[in-house]
Fold this protein.
Amino acid sequence: MALKVVLDSLDDVPEAIHSEYVEKDGKFVLQLDGAFSAVDRDNLQKALKKERDEHKAAKQRLGKYGELTPEQIEELRSKNEELALQIETLGTTDEAERTKKIDELADRRALARIKPIERQFNELKSQFEGVTGERDELRREKLTNKIISAVTDPVVLKEAGIVPDAVEDIKLWGLAHFEVDENGNVVSKESLGTPGIPPKDVFGDFKTNGQRRHWFGTTTGAGATGGKGSDSLTGDNPFVEGKFNLSKIGLLVKADPQKAVRMAKAASTKNYDATKYLPKALRPTA
């Protein structure tokens, strides 16, 4: 016999197939793989009808407002409340209560005038914050690109003898230890010992002192064996052109700032200003 999908009871159904039915909403529904039962269909139709009815009711409630915007509706509601308060105030004989009502009416009027202004202010504030955020992001991106471009300048890297495989490492290192100064130049931060030094001179110092040797491949320069720890405050002037040594300058500035100034001045020539490698606070004023 043909099996019915929905039954009120299982009395007329062979006991062997009772397990094929499940009870839903007081009825027994036949379980079919991939099938959409009548009960499920009825429930869905009921849910859709309820949704349509609620939508229709909401539309009817708002219909009386015609084409008014939410802001205009709020304004009308506020005026209606104000009018009701005015009527209530006129009917009050007690002087204290009347004064209280008048104050309340004044506050309500002030609030009604302020609300549109606040709403407009918040909209403008939101727009401004969005524009400011975009501007700051563009500024950060611009500075980041400028630093990366400076520390990975092909001409600078070639002159320093840096191998191509070191470029990606230099990008991250450069972002951590360089900044753009007030004149728009990419210079070293305090983290490198002496601030205000261009990438070219920092690379030259690294090569001379054997720092970050993997950047320079197998050739690390004449001073490679000394390492950073072998630097001394005595000996050759670290500011002299051709013997420039950033590490020694950093140590010298920390140990004896005035001596560093004297040595920088002594190393300067007509075409070479060694004092530019001093911290800004120690540089001679023009």
Notes: Residues 70-145 form one domain. The beta strands are 6-7, 21-24, 27-30, 178-180, 186-188. Confidence is low (pLDDT under 50) at residues 219-235.
